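Researcher: Go.
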Amino acid sequence: MRNMKLILKRVCWGVVGLIGIGLIYYVLVARIPEDHLSQDEIVAKYQYFKGFHDFKVTSRAKMMREFSFKSFDGEKVYGKVVFPNTNQESFPVLVGIHAMGRSYPRWFQSSLKGRPTVTHVDKITQAALQKGFAVIAIDARFHGKRKVKEKPLRSIWNDLHFFGNKSDYENMIINTVIDNRLLIDWIVEQPEFNSEEIHLAGYSMGGQVSLILAAIDGRVEDVVSIVPPFISNSVASVSPLNLASLINDNRVLMIVGAYDDVASPEENRLVFDKIATTQKQLITYQADHILPEEYVDQVARWLSPF
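Model: Structure:
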């Protein structure tokens, strides 16, 4: 009996010790407190040397081109543009930004490798094409053709919320925003595109990127942010909450789920209220992170004025 008590005591102290070590690691390593960053300091993280490099059309078909270019740091970016089947002097542009764990083909295909596009962003593309938009999408960092075996997305996401290094997630979002800024550099130089009509639509992580991009790049007209995750100040530089007040001359549509496990109704309202423009709308579905297909109708109506 005495030995059993001694063993239990040692086990208890061992557990307490492990918890203590975990807390110390969280405070000193895993938790990256950036809430002291000013808005100007955050915006500075998204600056870059303008100019895309080595732009190449890798595949061409009727009304479609696949392409690649090199980003500011030499990273190769892959993407696709599809044109509407209409005669126009120039096309308004919808840039589609995919969710975490997805890739740019989701904007153009109802399924990929036998798996359905449950986010229904392919239907947003169809609606936009019917309204005369050209639709363009690229792969985010660590996604699609840009996957890095040593940096699996599950680990990056878990590190964001648990005892891990959050820099991979932070860099993924920042550099994905910059990649899209370079994409816009290319768009405005192409005579077939209307550089005054560049619109964004993003799902989940794409919704987060869309809000940040609209905040820091004045060439963006309007944004549709669909179920963006709520990001705390542990990675303040990629939290839309800290930049939403810069979205002051755009039309903004936020579509969210009441039971979303990555953003509560209160958190969504907090971000929405921070958006400075008065031309904004928040639509809430009684759904989780995967919205019902009918949300696409709301997006289509939002695009109607153009």
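Model: Residues 15-32 have pLDDT under 50 and may be disordered.
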